[in-house]
Amino acid sequence: GIHFADMIFPWFILIMGVAIPLAAAADAAKKTPAVKTYVSIFRRSALLVLLGCLVNSSYASAPVFDFGVLQLLGFAYFFAALIYQTPRVFKHFLTAALLLGYWAAIRFIPTPYGHAGLFSESANLVKYVNETYFERFGLEGILSIAPTTALALIGTTLGTLFLKKELTPVKRSLMLAAAGLVLAALGLVWNADLQFNKPLWTPSYVVFSAGWGAVLIALFHYIVDRAGSGAWKNIFIIPGKNAITAFVAPILVKTYILRGWDWVYANGSRRPLLDSIYGSLFSMFGKDFGGWLFTAVFILFWWAVLYSMHKKRLYIRV
Questions:
Q1: HEC per residue, 152-179
Q2: Residue 306, helix vs strand vs coil
Q3: Smallest Cα–Cα separation from 195: which of 183, 207, 205, 209?
Q4: How far is CA 285 from the centre of its chain?
Q5: Which residues in 277-315 are b (16+ Cβ under 10 Å) and which e?
Q6: N- or C-end of the chain: fewer Cβ atoms within 10 A?
Q7: Could you give the percent of the chain with pLDDT greater than 90?
Q8: Taking residues 128-137, what's their average pLDDT?
């Protein structure tokens, strides 16, 4: 199945793809040399992968190279940004080929588990290939580059609508919403053949998530671009301008401080700072409300940090 939270990661990849045509158009307007563009693509991709390794190594308290959130973002961006430079027909063909090829491999290539097309948590082609060829090198998840690249390429197609100056926000929003509903319907139909699966990035999951992501983009574009100026938009703009900081910094603080530091009690016992905070909130407000309270304060704290960076015009980007 699929839940709302399962679509958050795909939406990161989708909106990254939407931004690629805008960045390419800016480079074209500045007459940026092609070599410099390709160097920027490589640098940005490498930084995302390295930051992802830093995050996962922090979790593991040891050097780790694997395919976490930022690593997949980095690889998907790298290939999507390069493919975007190719002719439009080839880009669309490759998007379809990546999804259909990944689907066909899962459905029709036999594995030692049993008959071709076997798809369960304990027996499927992706699991077999990962365990047989990539697990020893810490590269489980490398096959996910194919569907996530396709997802970013879907984003580039949506992003080109923002380059069409003749479109009004209303018409552009309608086109985005229509494309999104078609994709969501296609994903739902595809689910009947190969079910939604987030860890394995099945094409049905990718297309379905892309569809609802496009609908959300249409909704926010309609609201924000027609609303004109308004301080309320800063709720979204401020963290958006420092998105990589908003993602990485809370993880590192939680890992090295909230989980790494101990609170020493009067009787000499020690507990990680995060556990102590949770324990206090749970005892005072109950587990559910205490958990929500911690989450709300944590988000507000980091929004304040990002607001301070915004006021100082300090933006950290990759």
A1: HHHHHHHHHHHHCCCCCHHHHHHHHHHH
A2: helix
A3: 205
A4: 33
A5: bbeebbeeeeeeebeeebeeeeeeebeebbeebbeeeee
A6: N
A7: 77
A8: 88
Planar angle of CA 219, 221, 222, nearest 5 degrees:
65
For the residues 295-314, what does the mean pLDDT come to? 95
Give the global pTM. Answer: 0.91
**Helix, strand, coil percentages, rounded to 5, for the chain:** 75, 5, 25
Using one digit for the tens of pLDDT, what is the confidence trace for 166-192?
998 899 999 999 999 999 999 999 999
Q: Which residues contact 244 (CB under 8 A, 6 or more apart)?
A: 51, 316, 317, 318
Which amino acid is present at 16?
M
Per-residue tokens: 186: 């296609």
Q: Where does the pLDDT of residue 227 fall: very low under 50, low under 70, confident under 90, or very high at 90 and above?
A: low
User: Considering the chain, what percentage of its residues have pLDDT values greater than 70?
Assistant: 99
Give me 39's structure tokens. 């160097």
Tokens matching residue 133: 């060829």
Query: Which whole-number Å values give the CA distances from 16 to 23, 98, 138, 160, 318, in the listed order?
Result: 10, 18, 26, 13, 12
Q: What is the pLDDT of residues 190-221, one digit of tens each?
A: 999 999 999 999 999 999 999 999 999 999 99
**17 contacts 287 by C-beta, under 8 angstroms:** no
Mean pLDDT of 271-297: 93
Greatest Cα pair distance in the chain: 71
Q: In which residue are the tokens 């909130």 written?
A: 281
